[in-house]
Specification:
Structural class: mainly beta
Distance between the termini: 40 Å
Order of helices and strands: EEEEEEEEEEE
Oligomer: single chain
Shape: elongated
Number of strands: 11
């Protein structure tokens, strides 16, 4: 199965910005909805933002106005631009998407391995 690969995490200070990227590790036929989730220590994984193939977006209330999700369908890549980062944004960020490997096969849901984002105060 093709997996998703995230990049762009790191250690930043409060108020800084980061951009996460996510793309499939191999060749695919199509990608449907894509999204970013995060999981902080001791907490459940939560949806941060999602985007449909057509570009409709949805955000968690805690990130509205600070984070922007976008995608490049030609590159099969989804991005998460994170501005005005806060210490409470510290978490492992996971990419999620519905992938299709060929026209004859159904979509399946795939997760990335996660990328750590740490925001110091």
């Amino acid at each position: 199965q093709v997996q998703l690969v995230e990049s762009g995490g790191g250690l930043v200070q409060a108020g800084d910005s980061l951009r996460l990227s996510c793309a499939p590790s191999g060749s695919i036929f199509s990608i449907n909805d894509m999204g970013w989730y995060r999981q902080a220590p001791g907490k459940q994984r939560e949806l941060v933002a999602s985007i449909t193939w057509g570009g409709s977006t949805n955000y968690a209330d805690s990130v509205k106005g600070r984070f922007t999700i976008s995608r490049d369908n030609a590159k099969n890549t989804v991005y998460l631009q994170m501005n005005s980062l806060k210490p409470e944004d510290t978490a492992v960020y996971y990419c999620n998407a519905d992938l299709k490997l060929s026209s004859l096969r159904p979509f399946y849901n795939s997760w990335g391995q996660g990328t750590q984002v740490t925001v110091s105060s």
